[in-house]
Amino acid sequence: MPLLVVGSIAIDSIHTPTEVRENILGGSATHFSYAASFFSGVRMVGVVGEDWQEEHTQLLADRGIDTSGIEVEEGGKTFRWTGKYHNNMNDRDTLEVHLNVLENFSPTLSEEAARCPFVFLANGSPTTQMKVLDQMTGPRLVVADTMDLWIEIEHDQLKKLLSRIDGLVLNDSEAKLLTNEENLVRAGQKVLDMGPKFVVLKKGEHGAMFFSENETYVMPAFPTPDVVDPTGAGDSFAGGMMGYLSEQNNFDPKTLKEAMGYGTVVASLIVEDFSLDRLKGASRDEIDGRFDKYRQMLSF
Amino acid sequence: MPLLVVGSIAIDSIHTPTEVRENILGGSATHFSYAASFFSGVRMVGVVGEDWQEEHTQLLADRGIDTSGIEVEEGGKTFRWTGKYHNNMNDRDTLEVHLNVLENFSPTLSEEAARCPFVFLANGSPTTQMKVLDQMTGPRLVVADTMDLWIEIEHDQLKKLLSRIDGLVLNDSEAKLLTNEENLVRAGQKVLDMGPKFVVLKKGEHGAMFFSENETYVMPAFPTPDVVDPTGAGDSFAGGMMGYLSEQNNFDPKTLKEAMGYGTVVASLIVEDFSLDRLKGASRDEIDGRFDKYRQMLSF
To answer: What CATH number is given for A3-297 in this structure?
Structure first.
């Protein structure tokens, strides 16, 4: 089933304790789409500037991603983000952020995009996320991401969004901020009370938690000794998860749990190199192999 | 099979964000023994002062724990610790610590204690831990805990200890300090290279990792919304784990993994109230029930 993602496309500069990489491909929609493409057809909607390099589009298209929704804004510059990771590779500081073309991004969906049954609203203002929803014609499953900024400055809009979506994906610190609750189990349950049918609470290197009316569970991150660049781990997690749901054309509890497993596995791959480099060399077979290892790791 | 634990017995004062409890029973050997007593016979060795209250011994004896190794030092005072938890209930500050009788504690084992096949050397100086080992007559499985203090001031002794034990249990921050490695997978593997056959790396609310020559895995904490007092979680984890190994009289990989699960479950119970209060009301049936839930949570 085709999967729609609307989100950011970025040029990142990444500082890790051992290396600096400048002007590499990033953005929530980018990481999400690439990860999801191993499972499902993906339509990607976003905006870039005149500085955008055609080779990036080609890279995405080569994985079968429908890039016709990538709008090039004349005279504009692509969104840029510069981040620096702490020694623990889990915390990071934003050194620079230039919204550029993202500042006035108002996504317009093609007819095909509007008809996608599975939708992921990557991190963006709740107002923009709802504008996307307004254009959809009866999606089966809508999942959104959010961040601290929107919790702080668009709280009411976010609350409205929460009543219109099926699933929400957010970080542990964001869940605490949104619910004013330090215990993550309570925080997740409180987010659930705000409207979505399920909540995925991401804990970075410590994995992710899942909350629905009938279930609460935790899945650890797949342990990898090779953490090179954690950028995009959360979006790849969502991409693996949504890609699998879309492939299965199902989101019952069993499929959702497997999808959490696939999200975990794809995220563990992406952090092993910069940008999309690790996934570029990956195959569905490799992902399935790590998924089996992960499943076995958790059975006793 | 009888299980020996040598470690601290304490009177704690605990400050949580919502409550203060003074002069409650604590200590590594105490938490360990109580947790292990649901699985196995336990012999507890430690020292207390003249201020020790007989009701504490009675509480332990009521669970079948052999308390004859608790030495009462004339004119001495019991070890005291006061700690304050941060809002996240995972980090804490030590407000006061009075070693008292623990300062010159030199454990002497009875013949029965020396013959125990399963041994846990709870947190203590490596020198003292090795003195215990010197008295043992052919134990089958020796596991030790350690802490940052010993890594810093008794590094050489700790290295010696590591070559004499089968398993080491330590915190994530301690593993990083010991190995000078930020990635926990690498840190765990480096500790393994120092001698023990397996390493358990505890991550507090995020669970625990296991390392052996042939296996690396992560087990998340059992998610509980009711975290009242995390004191003793790590020692109870070790108690549940070692208790189960001792009960099964086995420590093959399959049994070790189940033991990690039991450790996780017992730790998730102890944090739901102060001191031993939550476990006082627990039964093996309740522990087994949560274990089954935990196992199910991780299967997909």
So the answer is: 3.40.1190.20
